[in-house]
Design a protein that fits this description.
Blueprint: E1 5-10, E2 15-20, H1 21-37, H2 43-50, H3 54-64, H4 74-92
Antiparallel strand pairs: 1-2
Helix pairs in contact: 1-2, 1-3
């Protein structure tokens, strides 16, 4: 399988990236290991740790049948941040 390439198109720009099957499998194992260590990590964080882009990580996840974290809604993030700030303000007084 060393010469067999996995070609995946990333995004709308149609940038073609090539990785061997072994590299794709290593990316999948690395992503799964990181998600086990940090179950609340964002999709972008998992992609950065793995060393590939989000689009490529999604394609690898489809191929190797594992689930990725959902994209977080910005509103939910801001609400959590507001609750944290309010809690810190109340404790500061």
């Amino acid at each position: 399988m060393g010469k067999q390439l996995l070609s995946i198109y990333a995004g709308k720009l149609r940038v073609k990236t090539h990785h061997t099957e072994e590299e794709a499998e290593a990316f999948a194992i690395r992503a799964q290991g990181f998600m086990e260590k940090r179950p609340y990590a964002s999709l972008t964080r998992v992609a950065q740790y793995t060393g590939v882009g989000v689009h490529l990580l999604r394609e690898i996840a489809k191929k190797y049948n594992f689930t990725l974290p959902e994209i977080r809604d910005k509103a939910k993030k801001s609400i959590k941040a507001l609750k944290l700030i309010r809690g810190l303000k109340n404790n500061w007084r």
